[in-house]
Design goal:
Blueprint: H1 20-36, E1 44-51, H2 57-70, E2 76-81, E3 84-89, E4 98-101, H3 107-122, E5 134-142, E6 145-153, H4 159-174, H5 186-198, H6 200-212, E7 219-220, E8 225-226, H7 241-251, H8 255-259
Parallel strand pairs: 4-5
Antiparallel strand pairs: 1-6, 2-3, 5-6, 7-8
Length: about 260
């Protein structure tokens, strides 16, 4: 691992349990490396925003720094001991915004440059076992035309939850004096869930849902892996942003952690 300083809890622990989907995505990424013989971003996702405004990049960098400081999941590093997965939390990361000048003579050519750059980046492996599981860039097309991009591994979230990071960053950029949005950390949630999963009630719940979803659920919660192909039907769903906001305020967590 890189030379980071890691969080240590009140009991002296520096490694913590992982959530179910964290373990699944880590396991699948490593399996893909082994089966293909090629290290690529098999579990990557991305989200972005095109900003038609002249940007203060230093101020924007500070806004991203706040988001990283408040969301410990964005400082999570995967640790593997044999078949067991754990995670460490980096205490602090000094974030530096990489501003890329798009190449080209016209807006169209510069946009194509940005498109090609993003397609290339999302296919790259993200080493979430030796550092953070994302890459953040700003692609400058013109003084008043920028593309803010986050490339992340599913270890930290999916496309929608990463989009929440973009929303939080823009909120802090526009309102730098608003107070922090969370008291409870992601690692506290993970430890609480792990305790529940091991409890008699948690084991009873897992047994119930494994039976209830039989024939629909491809994911095996016991092995953290895909099971037999299901005969269920996948469906589209819509995330209600207002509900996420209300839950975050009630539980005193960030919106990113609500959805993740």
């Amino acid at each position: 691992m890189n030379n980071y300083e890691y969080y240590v809890d009140e009991n002296g622990n520096s490694e913590f349990p992982v959530a179910v989907l964290q373990e699944y995505h880590a396991r699948e990424e490593l399996r893909a490396y082994e089966e293909s013989g090629i290290k690529m971003g098999y579990g990557n996702t991305a989200s972005g925003a095109r900003i038609y405004h002249k940007m203060d990049y230093d101020r924007f960098e500070k806004a991203i720094q706040r988001v990283i400081d408040e969301n410990d999941q964005l400082r999570s590093v995967c640790v593997k001991h044999g078949e067991k997965f754990m995670q460490k939390i980096i205490r602090h990361i000094d974030f530096k915004l990489n501003v890329i000048e798009a190449e080209g003579n016209t807006v169209e050519e510069k946009y194509q440059f940005a498109t090609n750059y993003c397609q290339n980046e999302i296919s790259k492996a993200i080493d979430f076992m030796n550092g953070v599981a994302y890459k953040i860039v700003m692609i400058k097309l013109a003084e008043d035309d920028n593309i803010f991009m986050i490339f992340g591994h599913h270890w930290i979230g999916d496309g929608y939850s990463i989009a929440l990071i973009i929303n939080m960053t823009l909120e802090y950029y526009l309102n730098p004096d608003i107070p922090p949005q969370a008291d409870v950390k992601y690692i506290d949630y993970v430890k609480e869930i792990e305790e529940f999963r091991r409890s008699p009630k948690g084991l009873e719940q897992k047994k119930y849902w494994n039976n209830e979803l039989k024939g629909y659920e491809k994911f095996d919660m016991d092995s953290m892996d895909f099971g037999e192909p299901s005969d269920g039907v996948d469906g589209m769903f819509i995330i209600n942003q207002e509900i996420i906001d209300r839950v975050a305020k009630k539980l005193k967590v960030t919106k990113f952690n609500v959805f993740h």
